[in-house]
Design a protein that fits this description.
The protein has one domain. The chain is mainly alpha-helical and 97 residues long. It contains four helices and no strands.
Length: 97
Amino acid sequence: MSNPSIVDILSIRNNNYIYTMDLLRIEILNPKVNQLLGELAELNLISIKKEKSTAFYKFLAKLRRKSKDKITLDEIISEVETVRKKRYAGKATKGHS
């Protein structure tokens, strides 16, 4: 027999049970899951709490609303490459002097 944990000892001494709560962050990939989660919440099996938006997320949402055109993946890659070239151009010449 293994050594009892502190939870086991407290349960034995108090003759009751100690429940632990797991906090999970779940990314919902299929909207149909919302109905299932709602049913579990109605049965008091889970509790659903929405996270408050941070200032950063509010700022991003505001920028997205103001954007007239959607940026493409090619435009993102091009911008990243341009920034990298500028950033590392000075480092390459300094290291090989």
